[in-house]
Protein backbone atom coordinates (compact mmCIF):
# COMPACT_ATOMS: atom_id res chain seq x y z
CA UNK A 1 0.00 0.00 0.00
CA UNK A 2 2.68 2.38 -1.10
CA UNK A 3 0.33 5.20 -2.03
CA UNK A 4 -1.61 5.01 1.23
CA UNK A 5 0.55 6.09 4.17
CA UNK A 6 -2.09 5.24 6.78
CA UNK A 7 -2.69 1.71 5.46
CA UNK A 8 -6.37 2.37 6.08
CA UNK A 9 -8.30 0.47 3.38
CA UNK A 10 -10.95 3.15 3.31
CA UNK A 11 -8.46 5.99 2.83
CA UNK A 12 -8.14 7.03 -0.80
CA UNK A 13 -4.84 6.84 -2.61
CA UNK A 14 -3.32 9.07 -5.20
CA UNK A 15 -0.22 8.96 -7.33
CA UNK A 16 1.39 11.57 -5.09
CA UNK A 17 0.72 9.58 -1.92
CA UNK A 18 -2.04 11.85 -0.63
CA UNK A 19 -5.81 11.84 -0.75
CA UNK A 20 -7.60 12.05 -4.05
CA UNK A 21 -9.54 15.16 -4.88
CA UNK A 22 -13.11 15.37 -3.52
CA UNK A 23 -14.59 15.18 -7.02
CA UNK A 24 -12.90 11.85 -7.76
CA UNK A 25 -15.44 9.37 -9.24
CA UNK A 26 -14.06 6.58 -7.09
CA UNK A 27 -15.10 8.41 -3.90
CA UNK A 28 -18.65 7.07 -4.22
CA UNK A 29 -17.37 3.53 -4.75
CA UNK A 30 -15.09 3.82 -1.70
CA UNK A 31 -17.96 5.10 0.43
CA UNK A 32 -20.18 2.19 -0.65
CA UNK A 33 -17.41 -0.33 0.03
CA UNK A 34 -16.76 1.21 3.46
CA UNK A 35 -20.49 1.12 4.27
CA UNK A 36 -20.75 -2.52 3.16
CA UNK A 37 -17.73 -3.49 5.27
CA UNK A 38 -19.24 -1.73 8.28
CA UNK A 39 -22.59 -3.47 7.70
CA UNK A 40 -20.94 -6.90 7.51
CA UNK A 41 -18.89 -6.11 10.61
CA UNK A 42 -21.99 -4.96 12.51
CA UNK A 43 -23.86 -8.13 11.51
CA UNK A 44 -20.91 -10.29 12.57
CA UNK A 45 -20.60 -8.46 15.91
CA UNK A 46 -24.33 -8.71 16.68
CA UNK A 47 -24.45 -12.40 15.81
CA UNK A 48 -21.30 -13.07 17.86
CA UNK A 49 -22.77 -11.30 20.91
CA UNK A 50 -26.04 -13.19 20.43
CA UNK A 51 -24.11 -16.48 20.15
CA UNK A 52 -22.26 -15.76 23.39
CA UNK A 53 -25.50 -14.83 25.10
CA UNK A 54 -27.22 -17.97 23.75
CA UNK A 55 -24.31 -20.18 24.82
CA UNK A 56 -24.59 -18.90 28.43
CA UNK A 57 -28.37 -19.27 28.38
CA UNK A 58 -28.22 -22.86 27.14
CA UNK A 59 -30.19 -22.38 23.92
CA UNK A 60 -30.76 -25.32 21.55
CA UNK A 61 -27.87 -26.47 19.41
CA UNK A 62 -29.62 -25.92 16.04
CA UNK A 63 -30.27 -22.25 16.92
CA UNK A 64 -26.60 -21.79 17.78
CA UNK A 65 -25.62 -23.53 14.51
CA UNK A 66 -27.87 -21.26 12.44
CA UNK A 67 -26.38 -18.20 14.11
CA UNK A 68 -22.92 -19.66 13.58
CA UNK A 69 -23.63 -20.01 9.88
CA UNK A 70 -24.84 -16.39 9.75
CA UNK A 71 -21.66 -15.33 11.56
CA UNK A 72 -19.55 -17.34 9.10
CA UNK A 73 -21.35 -15.80 6.13
CA UNK A 74 -20.83 -12.31 7.54
CA UNK A 75 -17.13 -13.05 8.06
CA UNK A 76 -16.87 -14.44 4.51
CA UNK A 77 -18.59 -11.30 3.20
CA UNK A 78 -16.06 -9.13 5.02
CA UNK A 79 -13.16 -11.17 3.65
CA UNK A 80 -14.47 -11.16 0.06
CA UNK A 81 -15.28 -7.47 0.10
CA UNK A 82 -11.88 -6.64 1.64
CA UNK A 83 -10.16 -8.71 -1.05
CA UNK A 84 -12.16 -6.95 -3.80
CA UNK A 85 -11.26 -3.53 -2.35
CA UNK A 86 -7.57 -4.44 -2.20
CA UNK A 87 -7.63 -5.78 -5.78
CA UNK A 88 -9.38 -2.61 -6.98
CA UNK A 89 -6.81 -0.49 -5.11
CA UNK A 90 -3.95 -2.42 -6.75
CA UNK A 91 -5.53 -2.09 -10.22
CA UNK A 92 -6.19 1.63 -9.69
CA UNK A 93 -2.57 2.13 -8.66
CA UNK A 94 -1.37 0.29 -11.77
CA UNK A 95 -3.69 2.39 -13.96
CA UNK A 96 -2.42 5.61 -12.36
CA UNK A 97 1.11 4.48 -13.24
CA UNK A 98 0.09 3.81 -16.84
CA UNK A 99 -1.65 7.18 -17.11
CA UNK A 100 1.44 8.93 -15.75
CA UNK A 101 3.57 7.08 -18.30
CA UNK A 102 1.20 8.01 -21.14
CA UNK A 103 1.17 11.64 -20.03
CA UNK A 104 4.96 11.72 -19.97
CA UNK A 105 5.06 10.14 -23.43
CA UNK A 106 2.49 12.65 -24.72
CA UNK A 107 4.55 15.52 -23.32
CA UNK A 108 7.71 14.17 -25.00
CA UNK A 109 5.82 13.75 -28.28
CA UNK A 110 4.35 17.26 -28.05
CA UNK A 111 7.79 18.75 -27.34
CA UNK A 112 9.40 16.80 -30.19
CA UNK A 113 6.57 17.76 -32.54
CA UNK A 114 6.84 21.40 -31.55
CA UNK A 115 10.57 21.33 -32.26
CA UNK A 116 9.99 19.66 -35.63
CA UNK A 117 7.27 22.12 -36.62
CA UNK A 118 9.46 25.05 -35.59
CA UNK A 119 12.31 23.56 -37.60
CA UNK A 120 10.04 23.08 -40.59
CA UNK A 121 8.89 26.68 -40.33
CA UNK A 122 12.48 27.87 -40.28
CA UNK A 123 13.35 25.65 -43.26
CA UNK A 124 10.38 26.98 -45.23
CA UNK A 125 11.33 30.58 -44.44
CA UNK A 126 14.93 29.95 -45.54
CA UNK A 127 13.70 28.41 -48.79
CA UNK A 128 11.43 31.40 -49.39
CA UNK A 129 14.45 33.67 -48.85
CA UNK A 130 16.50 31.67 -51.38
CA UNK A 131 13.71 32.09 -53.91
CA UNK A 132 13.54 35.83 -53.11
CA UNK A 133 9.78 35.78 -52.52
CA UNK A 134 8.06 39.01 -51.56
CA UNK A 135 6.01 39.18 -48.36
CA UNK A 136 2.76 38.66 -50.27
CA UNK A 137 4.24 35.75 -52.23
CA UNK A 138 5.44 34.17 -48.99
CA UNK A 139 1.93 34.35 -47.52
CA UNK A 140 0.38 32.88 -50.67
CA UNK A 141 3.00 30.14 -50.88
CA UNK A 142 2.55 29.18 -47.23
CA UNK A 143 -1.25 29.04 -47.56
CA UNK A 144 -0.95 26.95 -50.72
CA UNK A 145 1.46 24.55 -48.99
CA UNK A 146 -1.09 24.28 -46.17
CA UNK A 147 -3.61 23.08 -48.74
CA UNK A 148 -5.88 26.07 -49.18
CA UNK A 149 -7.47 26.60 -52.60
CA UNK A 150 -6.86 29.81 -54.54
CA UNK A 151 -10.33 31.04 -53.53
CA UNK A 152 -9.64 30.28 -49.86
CA UNK A 153 -6.27 32.07 -50.04
CA UNK A 154 -8.01 35.07 -51.62
CA UNK A 155 -10.59 35.16 -48.80
CA UNK A 156 -7.88 34.74 -46.12
CA UNK A 157 -5.85 37.59 -47.60
CA UNK A 158 -8.87 39.77 -48.43
CA UNK A 159 -7.83 40.04 -52.06
CA UNK A 160 -9.12 38.83 -55.41
CA UNK A 161 -8.65 35.30 -56.65
CA UNK A 162 -7.03 36.71 -59.79
CA UNK A 163 -4.35 38.45 -57.70
CA UNK A 164 -3.70 35.24 -55.75
CA UNK A 165 -3.44 33.28 -59.01
CA UNK A 166 -0.84 35.76 -60.33
CA UNK A 167 1.11 35.62 -57.06
CA UNK A 168 1.01 31.81 -57.10
CA UNK A 169 2.35 31.78 -60.68
CA UNK A 170 5.13 34.10 -59.60
CA UNK A 171 5.97 31.79 -56.67
CA UNK A 172 6.04 28.72 -58.97
CA UNK A 173 8.29 30.56 -61.45
CA UNK A 174 10.76 31.76 -58.76
CA UNK A 175 10.78 28.30 -57.15
CA UNK A 176 11.28 26.57 -60.49
CA UNK A 177 8.29 24.28 -60.01
CA UNK A 178 5.31 23.45 -62.18
CA UNK A 179 2.60 23.83 -59.54
CA UNK A 180 1.32 23.39 -55.99
CA UNK A 181 2.28 19.70 -55.65
CA UNK A 182 5.90 20.39 -56.53
CA UNK A 183 5.91 23.48 -54.32
CA UNK A 184 4.81 21.38 -51.37
What does this structure look like?
The protein has 184 residues and is mainly alpha-helical. Helix content is 76%, strand content 0%. Mean pLDDT is 83; it is low at 1-21.
Concise structural overview:
The protein is mostly helical and 184 residues long.
Specify the number of helices.
6
Helix-strand topology string: HHHHHH
Structure class? mainly alpha
The residue-averaged pLDDT reads: 83
Low-confidence residue ranges: 1-21
Percent helix, as a range, is: over 70%
The best one-word shape is rod-shaped
Span between termini: 56 Å
- The beta-strand count equals 0
Give the C-alpha Rg.
36 Å
| Strand residues, percent | under 5%
Q: How would a crystallographer describe the biggest sheet?
A: none
How are the secondary structure elements laid out?
Blueprint: H1 26-57, H2 61-130, H3 135-145, H4 150-157, H5 161-175, H6 180-183
What tags apply to this protein structure?
single chain; mainly alpha; 0% strand; 184 residues; disordered N terminus; rod-shaped; 76% helix
Amino acid sequence: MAGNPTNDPSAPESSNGGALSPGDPSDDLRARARTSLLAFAAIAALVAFDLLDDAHAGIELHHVLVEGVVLGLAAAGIALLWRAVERARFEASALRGEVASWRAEATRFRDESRALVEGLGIAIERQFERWSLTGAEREVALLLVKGLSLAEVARARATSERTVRQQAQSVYRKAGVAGRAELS
